[in-house]
Automatic annotation (TrEMBL):
Keyword Acyltransferase applies: no
E.C. numbers: 2.4.2.1
Lineage, broadest ranks: Eukaryota, Fungi, Dikarya, Ascomycota, Saccharomycotina
Signal peptide start-end: none
Superkingdom of origin: Eukaryota
Name of this protein: Purine nucleoside phosphorylase
Domain Nucleoside phosphorylase intervals: 36-284
Pathway annotation: Purine metabolism; purine nucleoside salvage
Residues annotated for a purine D-ribonucleoside binding in this entry: E214, N256
Binding-site positions, phosphate: S43, H75, R97, L98, H99, A129, S233
Length: 318
């Protein structure tokens, strides 16, 4: 018997069976019953689902045993099955992800990853909206993730904490190769072939739990650690996907530049006899969720074109 909780493991099988039954009840083709790729559509990037063609089947999270419901604006909360590209690559999209900050624990937030692993998915594409910590990054830029910093994990808040599911992966999975090099190369080759002019970087994504955006001091700390971007998702999903032996690719859309300069000193202002009006508006430049969604919409066309070309190259031998 596994050292993991067999009852909990059975939850993944129950959910996977419910999904399969729903697909069959809607006369889905054989390829949709065996999707090759899971695509997680991040904030403002739900439009990726629009590149699916032909037959599609939508299953709301509420209809899947064990799935929690997405509560964030811009996250529909469903699995969408379909095909992408001339090669008809079968995929399943998470149109809206689940977050720790919504009040779900990591097991709930990453539950869909384990369920699609039971369905046979072996490749994860995770997208997100993020803040640009690297001072050369601008809003609207994209960043291919080649590594991450898991700040909650360093403090012991880790999605693999607890009994291990030996049926799915090892107790101590390596993460030095979490972001697959061959997939990153295929992505950049697709971009080059398409002639996309949008700036696309490659760098390190830093995970913070949220839901508050980072303070100025926290942004300086992240920059000193080597983080290029910061966000509130993706890393828990990558950790669980790698535990399930999935190959992983991550793409971040920079929606804003973080504020990292120290705030003005009230002590100095008092000594100089300055008023708050003379010091200036301290709310200027701060981040909002509306800004995140706006940048996502502006970048969606390029992202969709690139993703279609990239995913079309993911053959059975990939």
């Amino acid at each position: 018997m596994s050292s993991g909780d067999i009852t909990s493991y059975g939850r993944f099988e129950i959910a996977a069976r419910a999904i399969t039954d729903t697909l069959r009840s809607q006369n889905a083709s054989k390829s949709l019953l065996s999707p090759k790729v899971l695509i997680i559509c991040g904030s403002g990037l739900g439009g990726i689902a629009k590149i699916l063609h032909g037959e599609t089947v939508k299953i709301p999270y509420a209809n899947i045993p064990g799935f929690k419901e997405s509560t964030v604006s811009g996250h529909e909360g469903c699995l969408l099955f379909g095909k992408i590209g001339a090669n008809d690559v079968p995929v399943v999209c998470m149109v809206g992800r689940l977050h720790y900050y919504e009040g779900y624990d990591f097991a709930d937030a990453t539950f869909p990853i384990r369920v699609v692993a039971v369905l046979g998915v072996r490749l994860l594409i995770a997208t997100n909206a993020c803040g640009g910590v690297n001072e050369t990054y601008k809003p609207g830029d994209l960043m291919v993730i080649n590594d991450h910093i898991n700040l909650p994990g360093l403090a012991g808040n880790h999605p693999l904490r607890g009994p291990n599911f030996d049926e799915m992966g090892p107790r101590f999975p390596a993460m030095s190769d979490a972001y697959d090099f061959d997939l990153r190369l295929k992505f950049f080759n697709a971009v080059k072939k398409l002639g996309i002019e949008r700036s696309i970087h490659e760098g390190i994504y830093t995970y913070c739990c949220g839901p508050s955006f980072e303070t100025r001091a926290e942004c300086r700390l992240i920059r000193s650690f080597g983080g290029d971007t910061v966000g509130m998702s993706t890393v828990p999903e990558i950790l669980v996907a790698r535990h399930c032996s999935m190959r992983c690719f991550g793409l971040s859309l920079v929606t804003n530049n973080v504020l990292s300069d120290p705030p003005p000193s009230a002590r100095e202002a008092s000594a100089r006899g300055w008023t708050a009006e003379q010091v200036g508006n301290q709310s200027a430049g701060r981040t909002s969720h509306a800004e995140v969604l706006k940048e996502g919409q502006a970048a969606s066309e390029d992202v969709n074109v690139i993703m279609k070309a990239f995913i079309n190259e993911l053959t059975d031998n990939t």
